[in-house]
């Protein structure tokens, strides 16, 4: 299946992320194939799909941790990999080990590893300044010197956002960064990501099971289901016809007060259409 990108949608500038004829398979299992995708600088792409559809694997490909089985990939104009410092990554929220004594400030500083500002006093001062700015931008200054393992999940996640942004990335990869955050912190984290892309034209690829918390930010959606996919605006992709085709079962998309709800054959109403499809 080919991506639904019209010629008019194709960017004239170099894409922040560019996949051509990309294929990822583990043995016989094809997660996606013939994926053509250009993500523009400053664009917010939500990556949706059921468990096991290959969302995290896509992030791993873009991070250079997983080679494609076919096709090509470029991130910020270069092959992904360890040398590519233009990528920021916010992993899935997982509680840090309470015994971790690393301070928040040090954790954020790890995001600068590989940036060459010299080892002299000026380089070190600049580095400290950047870390302090990043901590302030996520409201983490007051707990920057607390061992990170003792912080709450929301506090730890704000540090991860700061770590991803401190290196001034062109591309920000976010793997379910709102998971297990309360509504207030979901808002803080999504606002920070949005502010970053607006201020610095950073492209954002945002893996999520729930589109609603970020719906106002989403330019396009990549929806993966069982080896099939669609790319397009939420209005194009989040429709009963498109999702029913992707899931190969009847799925209804209902819009209520500006939110999108996916209703399956068994009347389940939630944002995780995959459970509907799996049960059907
Ligand atoms: N290195 C690997 N070797 C073999 N299979 C793998 C490997 N990595 C992932 N898989 C399988 O590929 C499928 C896609 O995994 P992936 O983590 O990308 O899915 P996902 O869409 O992020 O799922 P979730 O929503 O549950 O996080 C899964 O079935 C997983 O078991």
Put the structure in a nutshell.
The protein is α/β, with parallel strands linked by helices and 280 residues long.
The percent of residues in helical segments reads: 25-40%
Low-confidence regions: 1-13, 265-280
Question: What's the number of helices?
Answer: 8
Bound molecules: adenosine-5'-triphosphate
Task: Indicate the proportion of strand residues.
Answer: 25-35%
Amino-to-carboxy terminus distance: 23 Å
* Oligomeric state, counting identical vs distinct chains: single chain
Order of helices and strands: EEEHEEHHHEHEEEHHEEEH
In angstroms, what is the radius of gyration?
A: 19 Å
Helix and strand topology:
Elements: E1 17-26, E2 29-39, E3 44-48, H1 55-62, E4 70-75, E5 87-90, H2 104-109, H3 121-137, H4 153-165, E6 171-175, H5 183-200, E7 203-207, E8 220-225, E9 228-232, H6 234-237, H7 240-247, E10 251-256, E11 259-264, E12 269-270, H8 273-279
Parallel strand pairs: 3-7, 3-8, 5-6, 6-7
Antiparallel strand pairs: 1-2, 1-4, 8-9, 10-11, 11-12
Helix pairs in contact: 3-4, 4-5
Bound molecules: adenosine-5'-triphosphate.
Adenosine-5'-triphosphate (ATP) binds next to helix 1.
